[in-house]
Design brief:
The chain is of the alpha+beta class and 48 residues long. The chain is 42% helix and 35% strand.
Length: 48
Amino acid sequence: MNKVVIGLLGYGTVGSGVASILRTNRFDINCRTHADLTIKKALVRNLR
């Protein structure tokens, strides 16, 4: 199985939604793509 490391440009509404979908559907994505997806970093403009 291939390992794919992902970096998100932004972690607002869309970025956090993408991360949530990747976590929720992780098993299905792994089965279909034969790749282990990992979110390593996320770029944010302002830390709250």
